[in-house]
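Researcher: Go.
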Amino acid sequence: MGLNIYNSLSRQLEEFVPLQEGKVLMYSCGPTVYDFFHIGNARTFLVSDIVRRYLEYKGFSVKLVQNLTDIDDKIINRAAELGQDASLLAKSNSEAYFEDSGCLGIRAADVHPRATEHIPEIVDLIQILMDKGAAYAVDGDVYYRVDSFCGYGKLSHRRPEDLLAGARVEVNERKEDARDFDLWKKAKPGEPWWDSPWGKGRPGWHIECSAMAMKHLGETIDIHAGGQDLQFPHHENEIAQSELATGKPFARYWMHVAFLRVNGQRMGKSERNFIFVRDALRDYSAEAIRHFLISAHYRHPLDYSSSSLKESSSAIRRLNNCLDVLKPFQSVTDPSLLDTDTLGEAEVSILDAVQSMRTGFEDAMDADFNTAKAIGEIFKFVGEVNLTLSTAGDNLSDTTKAALGRGYSGLKEKCEVLGIYSELTDSDAANSEMMDQLMKLIIDVRQTARQRKDWDTADKIRDRLKQLNIELQDTRQDVTWKIID
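Model: Structure:
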């Protein structure tokens, strides 16, 4: 079974076959940097991150381009409200985007083009459209002539009479058709501007992505991703202007991420029901937020609630506890220990669970990146490990340890594809080491109390730790601890 992607263009699952064998050209619409981004935006950016990670897991070489819209009406208006320079506002919010997305574990794209750095390419593309009769200038403004492209509406599957619904258009009597959209905007007093054959102005929103995508990926790309809200008019307009200019398909697979909702309503700045990523990260770990955002299929709406984030936090703690238990066995690598002729019941159970997780995980991700089901396969494996260890007891054979080591490698690999596990940073490692030392001290104090038969003190320490979600486990050899839900 190969990888299948739901293509918004055809409205059906299609087997993924890239233009070049082994290579994937991918474009993901990035932020308009007039403010920080919220976790509703983050869902879209995160899906692109995971698609890229899984394609690399499958052996593809991926070139991902994610733009930054750093000149736009929203930026100009916000800068005016704040009494700031528009370019400085865009610069500071761009830096904030990289900081917050990095904290969320979203890997940087191979290229992050900015619209203001591609004015020559944008002007050249507009000129091509002018030369082909697909664009016209009116007193410094340039518009795309929608009627010039016979395939207009094929992505959004809208009827001609419905094509204005939800579009970013203004009533403008100078347009030949109300559906026509801006390619170049004449500069108003006090606005940023660049020179062009049509006078001083700035690019329209849609032409920016076409120019940047073609500049860095070529005239036809494999995957174009973005939020559901961008399907029309933004992506529809990208197709129209790009395909008319080149005569080639612009993108072969279109992926659209459904909304994050609050109380059934789309999360968004206009609805004033959003939560900035940087604020969410103060209350929850990056892994917990990622787990929550991919706990439903990307094409299905997802409802935000604090209880959902808490459930994801608990799930991540269970996952980390399992990884912590398995990690010491990663160094047991002698392949002869896992000779199939010498395996006992425990080892067979673990190795079967590893293979089942791999098969289930890949089947889920191959079915249009079904992260919800993939997570289920991961936690099914966690349950199998916990059951096997509880049955095996404290004395583990080298063979069992080798099987557990293979389990650690398999589990870690799958978690890293989803970005719900990462190695500790130096700071985290230092904090973890301090926690270990503190717990060792507490356990030593408790053991001393038990040796004195001061059971009240020993029980008080154990019970107080449990109130802090820390559980002590007394074994024949020593005392261990773990964080519990």
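Model: The chain has three domains: 12-134+148-157+204-283, 332-418, 427-483.
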